[in-house]
Design goal:
With 110 residues, the protein is mainly alpha-helical. 72% of the residues lie in helices and 0% in strands. The termini are far apart.
Length: 110
């Protein structure tokens, strides 16, 4: 037995049966808490193989790679729909408009 365990055992000898019940409950609580900390990782590890077919498949990956990325200027047609504003026409104007919107939100003026 480890020295620390022996010290605890000696202290337990002095406790009433009611207190021993409390100590036992606390030990059970600590064990459950430690077990609960490891469960999410164990669940993730157990589900990894099942999800691998969904996450890692060439068909979906190639479809995503082939998607065309739209330039920000394509969004100018719908930008005016938000809050009745008219949308900017160039990527630079869109970027400037987004920056202004973020600054307004940050300063609470929107």
């Amino acid at each position: 037995m480890r020295p620390q365990t022996q010290q605890i055992a000696h202290k337990l000898d002095d406790l009433s049966p009611e207190r021993l019940t409390e100590v036992e409950d606390f030990i059970d609580f600590l064990r459950a808490r430690d077990r609960d900390k490891t469960l999410p990782g164990e669940y993730a590890q157990a589900s990894e193989a099942a999800f691998a077919k969904v996450w890692d498949n060439e068909e979906d990956d190639s479809a995503y790679r082939s998607e065309a990325v739209l330039p920000a200027s394509d969004l100018s047609q719908v930008a005016g729909l938000f809050k009745g504003r008219t949308g900017p026409k160039t990527d630079q104007e869109i970027e400037a408009g987004l920056l202004r919107d973020v600054q307004r939100k940050w300063h609470g003026r929107d």
